[in-house]
Amino acid sequence: MCDDPEPAVNISGGTEGGGSAAAFDPATADTRAEAVVDRLGELYWQKTYGGRDAFTCLVRTILSQNTSDKASQPAHDALLERYDDAAGDLADAIADAERSELAETISSAGLYNQKSEILIEAAEWVREEFGSAAEFDAFVKGEEPSTVRETLLSVRGVGPKTADCVLLFAGGREGVFPVDTHVHRIYRRMGIAPPDADHEGVRAVLERDVPAEKCGFGHTATIQFGREYCTARKPACLEDPDACPLGDRCEQVGVFPEPGEVVDPADASD
Ligand code: SF4
């Protein structure tokens, strides 16, 4: 998931980093997806988005690919400790890093050889295209989101989720609903996105149906919900139909309490 430590502040946007306040009221939601996000707004903390340094956010999100936050956070901390010199530029420091040393520094994140190569390439790209991490940050925060997204996607190792996390957490952009494995699973299970939709398909539905100012919260809160209730193998409703706070809004696509089985929604009708 994105670099998103447990929020301490209430969520609905706010001015810090460019978000704006949102009201969460399932009774007045215009779409099913908005009603779900509104319900999550009642369940979870709310926080503001944006304002983080774009290159640091890119590094953090690359480190988090294919691993848990628990594994990637120490790697991120170690990387910053070794390479983030207040007097210098982080992109410069990583572009010039010895690859094996960088790999060793981030070893707790898994796939560290591959990730160290991708990080060095990304840092070289930032230096060549923008001159410094600070200029890259200004680009992410100031350019049209679609231009930023397209530009980020041209970098090796940056996929749609990584690009959207940078847009959301660094740029504070509204209307960006990054789709990770939890978001992809849950909105198809609920019957809100088509069962066979890929990540981009789910993102299109959510960004169409969830008001822009609620998308950032929707992303992080859905991940939290996926960890606590709608897990991949054992969703809360599997054993107890009343255990899920969103049970009344869910079509349980691919979830079969009798005989207690779970399949990917795309395989549910086979
Ligand atoms: S009812 Fe079950 S499948 Fe639906 S959101 Fe809740 S835990 Fe997930």
Provide structural commentary.
The protein is mainly alpha-helical. The chain folds into 2 domains: 25-48 and 177-262, Endonuclease Iii, domain 2; 54-170, Orthogonal Bundle (Endonuclease III, domain 1). The chain is built from 12 helices and 2 strands; from the N terminus they run ααααααααααααββ. The chain has helices at residues 32-43, 54-64, 69-83, 90-95, 99-105, 112-130, 133-142, 145-153, 160-170, 181-189, 199-209, 212-228; strands at 255-256, 261-262. Strands 1-2 form a two-stranded antiparallel sheet. The longest helix is centred in the middle third of the chain and has 19 residues, at 112-130. Bound molecules: iron/sulfur cluster. Iron/sulfur cluster binds next to helix 10.
What's a quick, concise take on this entry?
The chain is mainly α. It is built from twelve helices and two strands.
The CATH architecture of the largest domain = Orthogonal Bundle
CATH superfamily of the largest domain: Hypothetical protein, domain 2
Strand content: under 5%
- What's the end-to-end separation, in Å? 30 Å
Return Rg in Å. 19 Å
Global geometry:
globular
Structural class: mainly alpha
**Total number of domains:** 2
Fraction of residues in H or I helices: 40-55%
Biggest sheet strand order reads 1-2
Low-confidence stretches: 1-19
Largest sheet report: 2 strands, antiparallel
Count of helices?
A: 12
DSSP, total strands: 2
For this structure, the CATH topology of the largest domain is Endonuclease III, domain 1
Average pLDDT level:
86
Q: Which small-molecule species are bound to the chains here?
A: iron/sulfur cluster
Order of helices and strands: HHHHHHHHHHHHEE
CATH class of the largest domain: Mainly Alpha
